[in-house]
């Protein structure tokens, strides 16, 4: 059955809606009331209104078709509620309640499965945060917004097996203004699993890039086939890499984490980018949400510090990217700039291009123009050590002004002054990283999205 | 010759001191005037005073013994100045000027060497930032403090082959309030090299931990013998790992980066911790500057999110640390806490300890107390997902209150609310990291400092 009404419901019922602050059913009502554009039907046995919205004693009392019911009631009540929803003709359910398989109550999950099958329904969860759809304001996350921000709209979909970690990541993405199309926390996946979500998101027009955090998939073959046919770049963080980690995963999700080597091979075969950890995942997500996809993996580095250029080169080579060979024209242009006195005679005019410690904004601009015009260059890493007294806020204009027909990322290690300026560079749409290795992670992720990379295919530009 | 007067001069001369803003000799004068506790003698041919301090036309005109001369004049003038310093009896020189070997002028370096040898002097540089000694205010770094902050006093010495990268790191350390004893940028090392600096710092009472960034050492055997006899934990970041990176290093420092495998083995043999990149170096430095050294490498993880516990476990195992086996008493204590209702019945009481999503500050406190009392536990990683509505600022008090006889680091991924609270946790002396992998890097670095680790030996606690 299609998940379209699950992600784009015209109306939702909140079963277990509450006026009592601190209750899950109150937090969800608040989130929905704040932004959700559809109709909201709170369901509560005793109250007449919830947050001033008329309430219904039961789902069957609502005299309209309900696209989606969100269930926030104690686990033991859920099977009956699922049955009631079925009778009321509701086809899509999100069960946020915990206390099921992860707490040893597989019996309750079986009961729910039975009722669902009888009524032909879709169910997300239980033990999950549900869905955030940034374009409609559908938001079933029970963490209050003052604790956990919601990210802006964008074209990345983020799927997380872990609700708590998913929420932390959303919060981090929000602070960095990384835009999302959808967030999905799917919990114990007694019905909708990773493969269903990838299939759905592959057809979602608002999604161009899919990130998934997992400890293990429910059905390996099903998931990897969905990943293969997805047609959009995907990145996975899979934990439970070690025996001890996998064992910890089993105890908290009641699911097997699976052998890491098998996953590793399968990710590769399906063209899924594997991020080693969540910092790397974050760095790539930021690049994808700010920058276009390059045509290839030839990288130019421009730096005012030789050491940082060396570090970036190491990381780049180790990740299988290539140092772009600058064209004859570019080399000629840079030499002319030296003759004109724009670029220092001490500069290294080969890639990595070191325009040395006394580089000015003008010198950066001239060098960046040459490199961005070079057909041999697919992406550019600009290292800027703002500790140098010859640099200042004019670098923001320089980066804003150069034609960015290719991905550009900035690496600017530093403290207070640096961060004051880099905030403005990010406002201008160029992602900034604290270390050379992280800047390289960013272009690596972008390069893995390009059609010629042999990895992920891409249907349209972000 | 001892470097003591180089690092602790009673007075300094600044040759090339200037009243003109933007000049290197002006920036150094400003830095010294601001904090340096000794006598300052500006040397300038034309001016009567520099920053209102009486100036001398030449070093030979100063009618007092000068411990250290800082030379900030064009490269071609330096050999003669070195000679003059020799005649004036100055035994320690820092040459910050560039334009020597790195610019193809090895002849100037040879000239300087000749003069130095004649007068029996120590020379740091050329092409360097020189020295920052946080305890005396000696500060020869020409980057203005509004561009590059100076870190607080502490017990870490940081040596950097790259001046620009060293400055960026100082700036980053300052923002994170990582305390340093000394910073040394040694540039082209025509006299004082890495081995000399390690030897000196091994005897420096204010230094307990040595970090070095390098692309390659001058004399391999000399350096690694100094590292072996050093007696204090050392951490190195060595770039130029790849052929391409090494080649870039050669072009910017005019020195060979050397084979990475040889370095890798030598670091291991000498007991030097090798950080893979500067983020890892930063993470370890922060841990070392905030926390004590553990007795061993058995780690306990306490978390309110299972996924984060899995990620920390993976990283920990992959780094060769061990998951502590909780003692019978701890397990009993935690079980009692469940019976008393302090810890949820859904919690996982084995390491990694998952006190689940609705954990309160009280639950953290009880769990942390049990774990910190456990003799089988050497360090504790506390994962706190502050997105949960059951947590709040009281976590700061909890972390402040528990007895920290062992290293404790916090992992708190998140955004605005999280960072508001974690700033207070860091004020209380506990380092906070954004990802589980980084929290593990921190305890890994600390564990590598402990006497039983087979790695670095340690003379005293930080």
Walkthrough of the structure:
The structure is a homodimer of 462-residue chains. With 462 residues, chain A is of the alpha/beta class. The first copy, chain A, folds into 2 domains: 284 residues, Rossmann fold, CATH 3.40.50; 159 residues, Rossmann fold. Chain A is 39% helix and 17% strand. Chain A has a 7-stranded mixed beta sheet with strand order 9-8-11-10-12-13-14, with helices on both faces. In chain A, strands 15, 16, 17, 18, 19 and 20 form a 6-stranded parallel beta sheet that branches. In chain A, helix 12 runs antiparallel to helix 13. The first copy, chain A, is elongated and about 80 Å long. The two termini of chain A are 28 Å apart. At the A-B interface, helix 5, helix 8, helix 11, helix 15 and helix 16 of A face helix 5, helix 8, helix 11, helix 15 and helix 16 of B.
List the helices and strands and how they pair.
The structure is a homodimer of 462-residue chains.
Chain A: H1 4-7, E1 11-15, H2 24-35, E2 39-43, E3 49-50, E4 53-54, E5 68-71, H3 78-87, E6 92-95, H4 106-119, E7 122-124, E8 130-133, E9 138-139, E10 153-160, H5 163-175, E11 180-185, H6 194-203, E12 209-214, H7 220-229, E13 234-238, H8 243-253, H9 260-270, E14 273-274, H10 278-290, E15 298-303, H11 306-318, E16 322-323, H12 328-339, E17 353-354, H13 361-373, E18 379-383, H14 394-401, E19 408-411, H15 416-427, E20 432-433, H16 436-448
Parallel strand pairs in A: 1-2, 1-5, 5-6, 6-7, 10-11, 10-12, 12-13, 13-14, 15-16, 15-17, 15-18, 18-19, 19-20
Antiparallel strand pairs in A: 3-4, 8-9, 8-11
Helix pairs in contact in A: 3-4, 6-7, 7-9, 10-16, 11-16, 12-13, 13-14, 14-15
